[in-house]
Amino acid sequence: MLSDINLDRIKSDKNISDLFVNASFSSLAINCNILKGSFFSDAFYYFPISNNNQTFSSLYLREFNNLSHFYTEKFFENFNEKKHSLKSFKDIYILGSNSGNNYYSNLLHFLPRIFFNKQTNVKIAIHRNSSNKYREFLRAILNSLKIEFNFIYLDDDFFYFQNSEFPQFMSINDSIKILKNFFSPKANPENSKKIYVTREDSNYRRIINEGDIITLLREKGYRVINPQLYEIEEQIEIFSNAEKIISPYGSNLANIIFCKPGTEIVEISPPFTDKEKVFDERYSNLSMLNKLKYNKIVADTIDVEKHSELAKKYIHPNILSNSNYYKNLILKIKDLKDII
Predict the structure, then answer these.
(1) Which of 96, 118, 209, 219 is 20 to 30 Å from 61 at the Cα level?
(2) Which of 173, 203, 237 finishes a domain?
(3) Domains in the chain, number
(4) At residue 190, does pLDDT exceed 70?
């Protein structure tokens, strides 16, 4: 069976601590433990397993992952049976990216860890599903850091990495500090102060009666923004210059971390269950950490007729059918008028 080594033991046991190197973010008092050497990992949870069957959940547990299946007999038997035939990579920096190309996860879970790389020429592993937009964003960051690099694309599988580096996942608070320290978007008077973020191209959490919503908001001076039409750096600039933002629940709201303190955020959300608390509080927590004025409108939901192939690949059918997270929204005009 796999054993889980907690942070205290990592620090106190020299044999284990020698598996890690420590890196710091140059202008902030933030440290990152980096697993260095040879190890196994998948490209979904990005949960490393040492050659001695050791794991380190205190460093590699992300916000909403459940890692319990790694510690079952069934997993261990399957892992032992296949581990000697896994595809192998050498000299890799495992940055990773969300297998479903979720922008929130890419921005706040994966991206900040690139700043702890100390190599000037590096092979960086990301998921093959990452969008061209995200790859270009990452390229721009690496170029600005004067780092020569190649991307290595991971598929949905387990791999064996040799002489490689795997930085831990940071807390959301530390991730925000790192990103805001690196990105300092300038004030641009041409950017709208009031924006509405549409999800018209999304498969779920689209607002079905959005035409009526947009008519009302335009009368109030709002500009409609479709993030799919903007590069990530452009999105950061738009959000950083806004004073009022209205948006359906979605990963592009991660950009509110770049907003000025006091910016008003109105999230249009589906009703979440108690089991979905991590989703329910996601953007209210980001607002609190960034000193933003947060409000929420809970909308009615309607089933999605046809889910995307990507959603069907990674999400259990029962969750797709039953969770309001994967439904579309109908917003009462009165509820919006009451808050704007």
Answers:
(1) 118
(2) 173
(3) 2
(4) no
pLDDT tens for 252-307 read: 999 999 999 999 999 999 999 888 888 899 999 999 999 999 999 999 999 888 77
Mind listing the pLDDT tens digit for each residue in 91-104? 999 999 999 999 99
In this structure, is the dihedral angle defined by the CA atoms of residues 43, 46, 48 and 54, taken in order, positive or negative?
A: negative
Give DSSP secondary structure letters for 176-224: HHHHHHH--PPP-TTS-SEEEE--TT-SSS-BTTHHHHHHHHHHTTPEE
Q: At what angle do helices 282-289 and 172-182 cross, to 10 degrees?
A: 50
Helix (H/G/I), strand (E/B), else coil: 124: strand
Asked if 162 and 41 sit in the same domain, the reply is yes
Residue 297 inside a domain? The answer is yes
Kindly state whether residues 122 and 32 are assigned to the same domain.
Answer: yes
- DSSP per-residue string spanning 215-281: HHHHHTTPEEE-GGGS-HHHHHHHHHH-SEEEEESSGGGGGGGGSPTT-EEEEEEPPPPGGGHHHHT
Which sign does the torsion angle of CA 36, 41, 44, 46 carry?
negative
Tokens of 58: 């205190």
Quote the longest CA-to-CA distance of the chain.
65
Give the DSSP H/E element, type plus range, for residue 302: strand 300-302
Do 164 and 199 belong to one domain? no
Query: Both 247 and 104 in a single domain?
Result: no
Q: What is the pTM of this model?
A: 0.94
177, 30 contact by CB (below 8 A): yes
**Alpha carbon distance 8, 136 (integer Å):** 38
